[in-house]
Amino acid sequence: MDIPKTRVIFDRKNVSTKTKKASVIVEVYYQRQRKFFSTGVELYKDQWKKDMVVGRHDAIDLMNRIKTIKEKIDEYLNERLKNNEDINLEHLRSWVDGHSEGKPASFLVFMQQRMRERPMAEGTFDQHSSVRRNLKRWGKIITFSDITLFNIILWDEESKRHSESGKTIETWHKVLRIYINEAVALGYVKKSPYKDFKVKRDRKIKHDFLSPEELKKWHTIVLPTDDIEKARDMFVFCCYTGLSYADMKKFDTRLIFESNGSMRYRRGRKKNDEMFNITILEPAMKVLEKYGGVPMMDNHIYNRYLKDIACLCGISKKLSSHCGRTTFASTVMLANKVPLKVLSNAMGHTSVRQTEEYAKLTQTVVDEEFDRLGTII
Predict the structure, then answer these.
(1) Which of 342, 330, 368 is nearest to 209 (CA)?
(2) What is the pLDDT along the chain (377 residues), one digit of tens a residue?
(3) Which sign, positive or negative, has the C-alpha torsion 141, 142, 143, 144?
(4) How far apart are CA 197 and CA 243, in angstroms?
(5) CA distances from 81 to 132, 299, 377 (A)
(6) How many CA atoms does the CB half-sphere of 372 hold within 13 Å?
(7) Is the Cβ–Cβ distance between 346 and 276 less than 8 Å?
């Protein structure tokens, strides 16, 4: 039995130079036939090394685009092999281009196609991609016929095995439900199982944060590699600016300005375009000076390094990129008597109530307030 093979190729005709671009394509080889599929990515010769885009600010986004197209082709081929269906490379081409007739080969393919078509912020796209990856890894909801009430119940159990956060579990369901509802609207699925399944909603947002002592240790710990040090510095920048990962990624040093002897930064948030106003505090400024801007890396690698650093520091908390934002709210701002309304403005929140979900009082602040009360009573 012939098995189709796919691979990513850069500069198939060997024409690229440092000043002339060439295309990145996906090659499909099957029954002595080769077909080439464009990814829309064009690079100079020194921007492609070891099958990776390098030396570009949008390297991660371009690799995600290449990976998405290759995965789409692989899923088409695997689905037909699984169902003992004929593989037609011409049909594959029209299907990849979005012109094939009938419904997509599988629910996961449909989900991927709609993710590419839907207008989404980068953070939302990453969230949807994460849910789709978990579905693919889990393997029980692949085709449209797999969308059953029983599998949704199993999906709920699977989400609880992977996360203790009610918010994360709710997100797993919310994202899946979006694409199931679209599949129903298009006639690919008769009825949404969510009509008979209610997700338990958890409005309590739980984010760990570093105490003043832990933050000091985070600053001074000697780390084994440059990449881990870079992750530490990213987190330090977040702890002293309160910026989310998405807002750090689009941070523009050209927007920094001086006012009353301090360096300020104002911009609309990536998530909701709400304006935030911050002063670049000394620890954050040192990071900018060290790297010539905000150091960045892929979010899942960043989160993995944060757990490694926490272990080296002897910190048992479950840290993620968002914990830097909570540390900013609790340890850097509230612990130093910054009013909640000022904090809300700095974080770009639409309401003080939203800020309250992030703002946690440290034990030191509680003790100081009781000591102050003791002098009055």
Answers:
(1) 330
(2) 678 899 999 999 999 998 889 999 999 998 888 889 888 788 999 999 999 999 888 788 788 888 888 888 888 888 888 878 788 777 777 666 554 445 677 898 899 889 988 887 777 888 899 999 999 889 889 888 889 999 999 999 998 888 756 677 888 999 999 999 999 998 888 999 999 998 876 555 567 889 999 999 999 999 999 999 999 999 999 999 999 898 999 899 999 999 999 999 998 887 777 788 899 999 999 999 999 999 999 888 998 999 999 999 999 988 888 899 999 988 898 888 888 888 888 888 877 777 777 666 556 655 665 566 567 66
(3) positive
(4) 36
(5) 21, 34, 79
(6) 6
(7) yes
* Euclidean distance between CA atoms 270 and 345, whole angstroms: 15
What are 80's two structure tokens?
């037909």
CA-to-CA distance for 277 and 275, rounded, in angstroms? 7
Token look-up 């011409």 returns 90
CB-based contacts of 84, cutoff 8 Å, min separation 6: none
Q: Which residue in this structure is represented by tokens 């198939």? A: 12
| Residues 210, 315 contacting (CB under 8 angstroms) | yes
Buried (b) or exposed (e) across 67-80, using 16+ Cβ within 10 A? Answer: ebbbbbbebbbebb
Give the Cα-Cα-Cα angle 155, 157, 159 (nearest 5 degrees): 70
Q: Virtual CA dihedral for 26, 30, 33, 37, nearest 10 degrees?
A: -20
